[in-house]
Amino acid sequence: MGGGSAGGATAGGSAGGATAGGSAGGEMAGGSAGGATAGGSAGGATAGGSAGGAMAGGSAGGGSADGGVADAGTGSCNAVAYGAPGIPFRLVASFPAATGGTIVPGTYDAIDAQTTDPSVNWTFRGTYVFEASGTLNTLEQLSRIGVPTAIVRRAWTWSVSGTSLIEVPTCGFSGGPLAVPYSVRIDGGTFIDLRANSAATLYTYRRR
Predict the structure, then answer these.
(1) pLDDT in tens, 166-204
(2) How far apart are CA 142 and CA 170, in angstroms?
(3) What gap in Å lies between CA 128 and CA 71, rounded to an integer?
(4) What is the phi/psi pair of residue 70, to 5°?
(5) 19, 20, 164 from 44: Cα distances, Å
């Protein structure tokens, strides 16, 4: 799909200027997470960027990968609620190429987290809400197993360009637009795979 529509919705941002090396999907870029140093790596995933929703500039402390009092998250960008528990990363040999597709507006919960890096020892929890108006609200938490980190809320506008999901930040993220490789799959449900750009991770979200 080219252009700026997804599921019939026109997003407020455009593909122009989006950084392919941005973050999305739960990597902590520019902050610490469960002991990972700022600007360094998080369980083997580079801090330079990730894929699928951007936990950039967050810090460790507070929160639980499986819920608890920290489910409210940090910040006031949205009021999204989790719909699935945290999930550990599983090791795979490789990822399929992104294929794009039509993103159907709705609420999507992370149900799978994959990595090609055997040193990654993390759990991930995430929920995305794609609005037909072009608004995207995200709720994410990336934790080293046994060391929970803060839950982060952010807001974006969204569109698609080819096989990239374009996320333009409007709340909670100070970086520029992100270009996230993605694939939509219909297989007993509606799924979106979001591939990390500079980290060896891929996240699968299922529509409620």
Answers:
(1) 999 999 999 999 999 999 999 999 999 999 756 689 999
(2) 21
(3) 15
(4) -85, 5
(5) 21, 19, 24
